[in-house]
Design goal:
- The structure is a single chain.
- The radius of gyration is 14 Å and the shape is globular.
- The chain has helices at residues 33-37, 53-65, 67-72, 86-96, 111-116, 159-167; strands spanning 12-17, 27-32, 41-47, 77-82, 102-106, 119-122, 128-131, 134-139, 142-148.
- The strands form two sheets. Strands 2-1-5-4-3-8-9 form a seven-stranded mixed β-sheet.
- The protein has six helices and nine strands, in the order E-E-H-E-H-H-E-H-E-H-E-E-E-E-H.
- It is α+β, with helices and mostly antiparallel strands.
- It has a single domain, classed as Glutaredoxin.
- The model has no long low-confidence stretch (mean pLDDT 93).
- It is 30% helix and 30% strand.
Amino acid sequence: MIKVGDTLPATTLMEFSEVEGNGCSIGPNPVDVAKATAGKTIALFALPGAFTPTCSAKHVPGYVEKFADFKAAGVDEIWCLSVNDAFVMGAWARDQKTGDKVRMLADGSADFAKATGLTLDLTARGMGLRSNRYSMLVKDGKVVSLNVEGPGKFEVSDAATLLAQAKG
């Protein structure tokens, strides 16, 4: 499993864009993790699935609400990762009104989750291999803090915990 001090895996995530701009076309666009984190501080959180109860009611809204606080603490971007496709993540972004506050990034084949060792097997619940619920603070591609949830828990990957670490 990835740990503090490690570099994020060289993988590609996908992001759905509804408008053209900044070199992005409409539709799914690749996000090279190494390039996208270079020279930046990223508040990254991952969860088992879009539109799932805890993720929609608590996890994403907390990061959207604390966007200004994260910026004030020196965070350049907030990323939400889930093992879903870019179209689902785009629809969820609209539903959650993330706007330009949280980048909703798809790890469709669970490549990032597998490379970090932070997978969650939900095959018995009909969801297949997913991402564990966690948060991490990343500076210039390196993990500065990591908060991995226990099974079925939502206690340490919330926005308030990661914000305190970003301020610290």
